[in-house]
Amino acid sequence: MKKNFDKTDPFLGVKKKARYRVVGVFFFSIVVLMGGNFLFELNPNHLSGDFIVELPEEVQSRSFLVGEYKKLHDILGRPFSEEDFRVLKSFKKKIWYVEVGLFLKKSKVDMLSERLILEGYAPETRKRKVGEKIIFSAILGPYNFFNAEMITEKLVTKGLKADINRF
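RESULT FIELD:
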């Protein structure tokens, strides 16, 4: 029996496209498989084996002390003595106060003190003479320098005028 090859297949073009697609998918799968194995066999290096946990106060005090060390070295132009280090360490002592608000009327300071008490602070009212006028302010503390800074930032973000002082 003789086959007749003269007749053309009406779906020959579609079959050729389908074969090319199958071959393309096959090669693409091989490339993805080999590339994926290469990419996913790498161990992640973003995690450290040892974790160091530092408290925020320690981080701030270290950076503060390093900054003060550099400033003093530039100003003094000499190596530091034990006295210089003692002065730097004194910043960590509880000798800092946060002064909140300055008012001419004691009633306003009393209202501010009540608000600070509701927020968990223990304010004291302080009276000072500036020139011919007497001003009142609420005082929080004593704190070390870094806690005083943090409290000042909190109060400023709440819209209060606060400053760090030594009295």
